[in-house]
Design a protein that fits this description.
By secondary structure, the protein is mainly alpha-helical. It contains three helices and no strands.
Length: 67
């Protein structure tokens, strides 16, 4: 792939990151405990499981790319 072919992909990635930051804004602006305290019990459990899954996924990807 040539360097000129990457430009549209980089722009698309940048737009996707901006959309993600906008969607996660309320969660990122406050602590997890504050967000979870406002949720019903089942939703709180789902949020905590998703946070653990996200952390595990990042660690796994880091490990896979380092080997």
């Amino acid at each position: 792939m040539e360097a000129t072919d990457l430009s549209p992909l980089i722009e698309d990635l940048s737009e996707n990151i901006d959309d993600l930051e906008e969607a996660l804004g309320p969660i990122l602006k406050s602590s997890l405990a504050d967000v979870a305290s406002k949720l019903p019990l089942l939703e709180k459990a789902k949020l905590q499981v998703l946070v653990v899954y996200a952390i595990e996924s990042v660690l796994f990807c880091t490990y896979e790319h380092s080997t």
